[in-house]
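Hi there,

I know you've been waiting on this one. I reran it after we fixed the sequence typo, so this is the corrected version. Both the input and the resulting structure follow.
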Amino acid sequence: MIIKATHTSSPASFAHGNAKGTVKTLHLINGEHFSGAERVQDLLAIALPRFGYEVGFACLKPDKFPRVRDSEAELFEIGMRSKFSLSCFRDIVDIARQNNYQVLHAHTPRTLMIGAMAARKLKRPLVYHVHSPVGRDSSRGLMNRLNAFIEKISLRQVSKMICVSNSLHDYMVGTGHAAEKLAVVSNGVEPVLELPTREAPGATWTVGTMALFRPRKGTEILLKALKILKDKRVPVKLRAVGPFETEPYQAEVLALVEELGIGEMIEWTGFQTDINRQLSLMDVFVLPSLYGEGLPMVVLEAMANAVPVVASDVEGIPEAVRDGIDGLIFKAGNSADLARNLQCLIGDQEKWKSMSQSSLERQRSALSITSMAVGVAAVYDGILETR
């Protein structure tokens, strides 16, 4: 069953609507979470109408996305019963035909598989957004291999792939995909136009992190670094924003917190929608990912809030955060290196001020919602001109 849903909130920065002459693009998304990739999808729905493209969503597993998104884009909720329930491609075909969607745009291996079937039936172009390296996306090796196989087979139908970082472009070329089918469009976020007055941190610094906490996010590395700082009497506390992917993983992490004896240093907030407010409460943002990143939106959002970033050297992260300028880059999986980098920044208010200003300027100049929308619109322009 297809349920058509709309959203009533107004976007912060862009007015949009059904402008005459625009091309309609249907984005196929999972929808059970609202993390980095979903934020990209939502922001594109806000920004793309300025460049002649109207976005709609077909949501295969509706949960968080329909409830917390900011865009007002048309949204169709489709109940995909399982990952291999392929019959819902007919729903996509019906939606595209009845609502005149001219381009399909998939964002995950699951939606790519369904989108490839629908695009073939419709004889309409399909774009695939590469948000992360699917072959090393999780700690489940069998699932990674299965998703990589699904992706490889389904990509035969794709007109163009959008990689969110140069490292992902190189990954896709290295796994056998033709360079001429690939485009690089860096992720971007909205500028924070009314930043609160940020003063240099006081005696105790608040280190923050924000994620859908799961094994590849490296939370354990951050906790061990926190223990090192505690033992060195570095005045620091941790604000951890976001839900855990599973209850068993949450239990593992909390058991480690107890083992390390750092529970009094940590505040777990759970899932939050007020991202900018959460970041305004942090002096330093840490992303300790082990693998599986493309160009993390949360890093860009920290930069937009003038919060210096300390992050691992994974995938596209060093493409956004210039080491020693906008923040600090540490060796993935190395808690001692993370602790050293944090200690290097904590207490050095001049370095903090410099990185805070630099990260803000970099986000606004190179990693904005406008630059992202311009890049995606150019991809659409190219595939439509060749048809």
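Quick highlight: The longest strand covers residues 23-29.

Best,
R. S.
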